[in-house]
Design a protein that fits this description.
The protein is of the alpha/beta class and 321 residues long. The chain has helices at residues 6-13, 17-31, 75-88, 106-119, 134-143, 156-162, 168-180, 197-208, 238-251, 268-276, 296-306, and strands at residues 36-46, 92-97, 124-128, 147-149, 184-191, 216-221, 256-259, 281-283, 309-310. The protein has eleven helices and nine strands. Helix 1 packs across helix 8 (197-208), helix 4 packs parallel to helix 5 and helix 8 (197-208) packs parallel to helix 9. The radius of gyration is 18 Å and the shape is globular. The structure holds S-adenosylmethionine, 6-(5-methyl-2-OXO-imidazolidin-4-yl)-hexanoic acid and iron/sulfur cluster.
Length: 321
């Protein structure tokens, strides 16, 4: 597909919000007519003490955030959490680790076992473990991994104000290895870190210009965490989130768009607008990795009021892209 330049993105992103949302909504209804929201559950399998300096992150060892470092969870702990997630109605289980990259050896082998154990529960499996080699990506795939989450976080221009310990191209290269291993990709970033509209457009451009468009695009709102350099950044206007999601839906009509971290700071009305504009996937359960997420019952009520329902196991609407 033709690579889009920033002017192509701008023509869509800068449209009056009402016409932008209206077009995104029609495309969304056409591609995903059943009003389903895919739900994943997230578990931090290895928390805190991370050597990277991502300025948004509660788990970076560079900042004093009160998150304590733990070792890798056991298989039993993970299976219990996955069963609970399944009972709640999640059909994908995502395991996150506070690593810069995953090292070969005992821990990598243990993670492969965790992936197989969760996959055997008839749940889709996603991992986010930092940077990966090609061989590791292939081994995870053979262990039963379906998706790998690795975020580009923001635009290439704004990136080095946010993270200095690894580069934007490191991230793109990891995504390439994930793709070459035939894993599905979940990637995206964080809104509300002080980025400009230009950064938002440039971030969208990076995603929609990937060789194969990601199956899952994750949009996090910054969870402002005490002790991190971004703790006092001004909160984002929810309509800017809606604008970003609507633009992505128009440019990536068949991808799932995940309204991820930060939903506790969004009203029901704002979340409804995000769903109208193309978001069709959320994290379920009251905890993300370290930060809070709405209670299950709150989300059940929200979906019911919006006229939406959760997709069931094996009922994911992800398209072949
Ligand atoms: N350590 C691995 C990595 O960075 O690739 C995996 C876990 S990391 C927590 C996964 C993603 O969570 C980050 O790339 C970032 O986009 C998101 N994230 C981290 N802290 C966040 C925060 N405070 N608010 C919103 N999103 C956040
Ligand atoms: C993603 O894009 N969002 C999730 C998941 N991928 C791993 C992580 C959000 C983390 C929010 C901060 C926390 O809970 O520590
Ligand atoms: Fe570490 Fe990931 Fe947090 Fe960055 S986002 S500090 S790599 S856990």
């Amino acid at each position: 597909m033709k690579k889009l330049n920033i002017e192509d993105i701008e023509k869509i992103f800068k449209r009056p919000l009402i016409s932008l949302v209206s077009e995104a909504c029609s495309i969304h209804q056409k591609e995903f007519p059943h009003g389903k929201i895919q739900a994943s559950s997230l578990l931090s399998i290895k928390t805190g003490g991370c050597p990277e300096n991502c300025t948004y992150c509660p788990q970076s060892a560079h900042y004093n955030t009160g998150v304590s470092k733990s070792s890798l969870l056991t298989k039993d702990e993970v299976i219990q959490a996955a069963l609970k997630a399944k009972e709640m109605g999640a059909n994908r289980f995502c395991m996150g680790a506070a690593w810069r990259e995953i090292r070969d050896g005992v821990e990598f082998d243990q993670v492969c076992e965790l992936v197989s154990a969760v996959s055997n529960l008839n749940l889709e499996v996603c991992c986010t473990l930092g940077m990966l080699t090609g061989t590791q990506a292939r081994k995870l795939k053979s262990a039963g991994l379906d998706f790998y989450n690795h975020n580009i976080d923001t635009s290439p221009e704004f990136y080095d104000k946010i993270v200095q310990t690894r580069t934007y191209s490191d991230r793109l290269e990891t995504l390439l290895r994930v793709r070459q291993a035939n894993l599905k990709i979940c990637t995206g970033g964080i809104l509300g870190m002080g980025e400009s509209d230009h950064d938002r457009m440039s971030f969208i451009q990076q995603i929609v210009n990937m060789e194969t468009i990601p199956e899952s695009i994750t949009i996090n709102m910054l969870v402002r965490t005490k002790g991190t350099p971004l703790e006092n950044v001004a909160p984002i206007d929810p309509l800017d989130i809606v604008r970003t999601i609507a633009t992505i839906r128009i440019l990536a009509p068949r991808s799932m768009i995940r309204l991820s971290a930060g939903r506790t700071s969004l009203s029901s009305e704002a979340q409804f607008l995000c769903f109208i504009s193309g978001a069709n996937s959320i994290f379920l359960g009251d905890k993300l990795l370290t930060s809070p997420n709405p209670d299950f019952s709150e989300d059940q009520q929200l979906l019911e009021k919006c006229g939406l329902s959760f997709s069931q196991v094996n009922e994911n609407e992800s398209h072949d892209l």
